[in-house]
Design brief:
This protein has three helices and no strands. It is mainly alpha-helical.
Length: 79
């Protein structure tokens, strides 16, 4: 369903990327899935920028702290 601020455009993507997006779109339509993944990529870029800024201001997060967070994360794959 289109929203008033939606804009139509045409892009060419590799077939493998389209296949992957379609397989992810099982519970939502293809275009909504693509849009959501683009929003997620934008948020990840914002997070990378924040972390770089934080590191510049306060230094890198010590490895022991990173390891502690990884171990505390439910599936052990955080960070």
């Amino acid at each position: 369903m289109s929203r008033p601020d939606d804009e139509k455009d045409c892009v060419a993507l590799p077939e493998s990327l389209i296949d992957s997006a379609r397989s992810e779109a099982s519970s939502q339509d293809f275009l909504s899935s693509v849009a959501e993944n683009l929003r997620l990529a934008e948020h990840m870029a914002d997070l990378d920028e924040f972390l770089a800024s934080h590191a510049a201001d306060h230094g890198q997060i010590p490895n022991d702290v990173v390891n502690e967070v990884r171990q505390a994360w439910p599936n052990g794959t955080a960070l």
